[in-house]
Amino acid sequence: MTGAAGFIGYHVAQRLLAQGHSVVGLDNLNSYYDPRLKQARLARLAPHPGFRFVEMNIGDRPSMEALFEREKFSTMIHLAAQAGVRYSVENPYACAEANLMGFVSVLEGARRNGVDHLIYASSSSVYGGNLKVPFAVADRVDSPVSLYAATKRANELMAHSYSSLFGMATTGLRFFTVYGPWGRPDMAPMRFAAAILRGESIDVYNYGNMQRDFTYVDDIAEGVVRIAARGRQPQPYRLFNVGNSSPVPLLSFITTLEKALGRPAIKRYLPMQPGDVPVTHADVEDFWLATDFRPATTLETGIEDFAHWYRDFYGPENGRLEENGDQHGDQHGDQQGLAHELRQEARQREGQADGEWNDADYGYARA
Ligand SMILES: NC(=O)c1ccc[n+]([C@@H]2O[C@H](COP(=O)([O-])OP(=O)(O)OC[C@H]3O[C@@H](n4cnc5c(N)ncnc54)[C@H](O)[C@@H]3O)[C@@H](O)[C@H]2O)c1
After folding, report:
1. What atom in ligand 1 is closest to the CA of residue 35?
2. Integer Cα distance of 306 and 297 in angstroms
3. Quick check: is 250 in a domain?
4. What order do you get walking across the sheet with 237-242 strand by strand?
5. Has 216 been annotated as catalytic?
6. Is residue 3 lining ligand 1, measured as CB closer than 6 Å?
7. pTM of the prediction?
8. What is the CATH number of the domain that holds 297?
9. Which of 89, 235, 273, 284 is most deeply packed, by most CB within 10 A?
10. For residue range 153-182, what is the model confidence (pLDDT) as tens digits?
């Protein structure tokens, strides 16, 4: 699995390990966001006897070739990518290197070393400015509105060429805004939570008239694991939406988070941002037929779990850690210094942030 120290990778790895699988987790621990959060996730995977970590850049061709040759993986789950819509606008080469050249090295490694099934992360951002909802895999997706979205669509096309040329089994999963514990600090739930706990304002675009299909990370992990368990299918090239299929109004999302954190948000209402879309909504019928599963965790449950983790990890005031009583156990104690440093960094990041709602892996970033 690539991207094993990342948000989704961490949860998928936990689930695979709990089922008794062996996982080789690869990540380059880059500093797009604080690598100590990635290290903290890895620290929780490391004790599993079935887990091995490889620190490697997927763009490092010789090392990737040697790794594939040595390990002869049966299944490959490729989650490493340069995520972040806004980041791709300002750092196009970083995005292209990880998401395009990195993807070629994964495809090549897989086809030359007999990988049975390559599963890779695509994104709902491929739907770009599409107006028809729910978004279905059969819809046209040739109008991306960010380079990030374009690279994700390119991955789908590259996978198609390998399935077609070499009969390689590939499954692309278009994830819809993922949230939950151990989340990404650049995404709306983490940024909103940080601002709410510090008593700072959050930006509410289009005066709150937006809906997003938030998907709880455990549902995403379950979906990935089910696709992996299906193994090779007669049709080598597959694409699925993986989303909750129940869009939530932005203001309901904020209210739910306020309740879970026990604090009101200070809202700054702003007009629609260029590139934003009013609604995202996943059609998951195909995914359900293929896996007998559809993401269904309610926002209330998911946000409750997220808020619990957030306060535990960063402290209840997002700046002051509660006494580390026995109830937290040693692992939490180990993270206190880390949590403090992460908070400092989160504050700096907040200063650099260009919006609260715009970087949730969709094509609606401010251009
Ligand atoms: N989180 C979402 O809402 C969402 C939505 C749609 C798609 N996705 C996709 O799902 C995947 C996982 O996303 P995530 O939210 O866990 O992001 P993440 O940034 O937390 O995880 C990605 C991991 O990949 C690693 N990585 C990046 N470039 C690498 C490289 N060149 N070599 C090796 N490792 C590298 C990073 O260090 C990171 O740990 C990504 O492909 C992302 O584009 C995420």
Report:
1. 37
2. 12
3. yes
4. 75-78, 117-123, 170-175, 237-242
5. no
6. yes
7. 0.89
8. 3.40.50.720
9. 284
10. 999 999 999 999 999 999 999 999 999 999
